Amino acid sequence: MDGVRTSPEIGFGLQAFTRPPGAPPLPRIARGEGIWLIDTDGNRYLDASSGPVASNLGHGHPRILAAMEAQARQAVFAYPSQFESAANLEFAERLGRLAGPGLDRAFIVSGGSEAVESAIKFARQYAVATGEASRWKVIGRQPGYHGNTLGALAVSGDDHAHEVFGPLLRAVPRVPAPLSYRLPANHTVESHARACAAALEEAILREGPETVLAFIMEPVGGLATGALVAPDSYYEAVRQICTRHGVKLIFDEVMSGAGRTGRFLAADHWPAARPDIVVVAKGLSAGYAPLGATLVSAEMVRVLAESGGFMHGFTYNAHVMSCAVGAAVLREIEEADLVGNAARMGKLLRQRLEALATRSPIIGNVRGKGLLMAVELVADRQTQQMIPLEKVAPERVKQLALRRGLALYCRRTSRGAYGDWLMLSPPLTITAEEIDILADRLGAVLDDYASELRSEGVI
Ligand code: PMP
Fold first, then answer.
1. For all residues of the chain together, what is the average pLDDT?
2. Is 250 a pocket residue for ligand 1 (Cβ < 6 Å)?
3. What pLDDT does residue 23 have?
4. Is residue 63 helix, strand or coil?
5. Is-contact 259 269, C-beta < 8 A?
6. Mean pLDDT score, 241-259
7. Nearest CA to ligand 1 atom 15
8. Which UniProt keywords apply (predicted)?
9. What are the sequence ranges of the domains in the chain?
C-alpha cells in the first residue's frame, strides 16, 4: 500500500470527510521512532503536539510494544461481565493509586467522549439513587470542549457545533470560561476569573440548584481555549460553589491527565479544589490503543452497586488489549518519572516559547502548564489584534510546519471568535536537546509565516 496514492476526494478515511476539496495531500506515515514520525518519502517530523495531545510516550516505545505483543499472545478480548483479566486489574489498580483518594475507582472505556458520557450518566444515576432525581442539568463553559458524541457535545461550549446539532441536544446552561488574554474591558485576569466563578453561581441559582447535577470544565484547557489556565482562586471558588449547592464538580482531563501538566492529574495542582469525578483518556494509553476512564470514589460506586449497578456499558468496556497497554503506560510513567520530566521539560519549553515571543511579531501570548502549552497568534502584539479570519492561520502554519519537519496540532475553533493558537505538547519523554530542536523549528516556521503575512500587507 505504501506507493498507493488515493486522492482525498475518494480517500477511505477521515480525510475525505473533513478536508476541503483540493487540500494538499497529507504525508503518509511509514513509522515512528521516539518523538519522530517518518513518512514514506523518508521525511522526519518532530511530533510537537503528540498528535492530538495523545502520544505521551512517543512512538515505537519498546516496553509498550512488548506488552502489546505479550497480551496479544494470551487474550485480546474477553467480555468483562464474563471474565476478569489481569490486564484490567493491574490497569485499574495503578490508575486508582495514581489518581488518589476519592478518584480511585475507574470505569474503563475506549476514549474521551465515551468517558464524558459515562461521567454524566454516572452522576445522574447517583443523584437518582440518593433521592435527588430532580437534578439533571450539566453546566459547561464557553468556550470548552468535551467530545463529539451528543451528550458530550451538549455540554461543550462551541456555538458552531450547537448551531448545526442543537436540535438534537438537550439545552444546558453555559458559563464563560475565565480567559487570560484579550480580556473583557476593565478586567484583570483575576477580576475576570472572579466574575466567571460568580457567573457559575448565578447560573445555578437561576436554574434552581435542585435541578443542577454537575459542572464540567477542563482544569487546563485543550484546543478549544489553547491551554487556558485560570488563577488558583478560580478553582477554589468553583469547588466551593459546587459544594454549596450540592453540584458535582467534573474535571475533564482527557488532555491534561496522565502526567501531561507535570502532575499525574492537573487536579493535583489545586488540592483545595478536588473534583468529584475526573475524566481521562488520550495519554492514558499514549495513543497505543483506544482507552479512556471515568474516575469516581469507591463510596459512589458502592451506592450505585447497591442500587442495582451502573445502567450503562459498551462492548469495549475494559478491553483487554487496551487495559494491557494502559497498565504498561502507567508502569512506564512511574518508572521513568515522566510526570517529573513533564514538569522539568515544561519549564524549558515555556522559557523557549517566551523567548520566541519576544522576537516574533506574531506571538501574542504563551500559556499552559507543564507540557500542555499553546502560543496564540496575532497580527499585532500591542493591540492583540487577531490575524484576519480569511487567512485561516492555524491551517497555514500547520502546512508551513510540515516543510520544516514539525508536526503541529492546531485547528481553528469557535470560528476563530476567541483567537488562533498552536498546541505545543510534545511527548512526555522529550529531552532538553529535543526541546531546543522543537523551539528552533517553530521559530523558523513562525518567521516563514510572518514574512508571508508581511508580503501580503497583513502585518
Ligand atoms: N475532552 C477533551 C478536553 C478533549 O480534548 C477531547 C479530545 N480532543 C475529548 C474530550 C474527546 O475525546 P475523544 O476524541 O477521545 O472522544
1. 96
2. no
3. 81
4. helix
5. no
6. 99
7. 112
8. Aminotransferase, Pyridoxal phosphate, Transferase
9. 14-60+337-455, 75-335
Percent of the chain with pLDDT over 70: 97
Q: pLDDT at position 171, please?
A: 87
Residues in the chain: 459
21-44: b (≥16 Cβ within 10 Å) or e = eeeeeeeeeeebebbbbbbeeeee
Query: 249: which strand partners?
Result: 215
How many Cβ atoms from other residues are within 10 Å of residue 432's Cβ? 11
Question: Any residues with CB less than 8 A from the CB of 190 and at least 6 apart, and which?
Answer: 231, 233
Show the cell assigned to 428. Answer: 512526555
pLDDT the model gives residue 382? 96
Does the CB atom of residue 113 touch ligand 1 within 6 A?
yes
> Is the bond preceding 143 in cis, omega lying within 30 degrees of 0?
yes
Answer CATH for 14-60+337-455 from 3.90.1150.10, 3.90.950.20, 3.30.450.20, 3.40.630.30: 3.90.1150.10
Give helix 338-359 / helix 320-335 axis angle, nearest 10°: 80
Q: Which whole number is the average pLDDT over 369-393?
A: 97
- Does the structure show a pLDDT above 60 at 210? yes
Q: Which of 431, 444, 289 is nearest to 371 (CA)?
A: 431
ipTM of the complex: 0.99
Fold of 75-335: Aspartate Aminotransferase; domain 2 (3.40.640)
pLDDT score at 5: 53
What is the 253 CA–ligand 1 centroid distance (Å)? 9
In 137-221 the beta strands, taken as DSSP E runs, fall at 137-142, 174-176, 212-217
Residue 45: what pLDDT? 98
Pocket test for ligand 1, best of 254, 316, 423 (most atoms within 8 A of CB): 254
The pLDDT tens digits of the residues spanning 271-301 come to 999 999 999 999 999 999 999 999 999 999 9
| Secondary structure (DSSP) of 353-420 | HHHHHHH-TTEEEEEEETTEEEEEE-SBTTTTBPPPGGG-HHHHHHHHHHHTTEE-B----GGGTT-E
401 in Cβ contact with 445 (< 8 Å)? yes
Residue 2: band (very low, low, confident or very high) from pLDDT cuts 50, 70, 90: very low
Task: Please tell me the residue having the least CA distance from ligand 1 atom 9.
Answer: 147
Q: Is the pLDDT of residue 14 over 70?
A: no
Check if the beta carbon of residue 215 is closer than 8 Å to that of residue 139. yes
Mean pLDDT of 253-282: 98
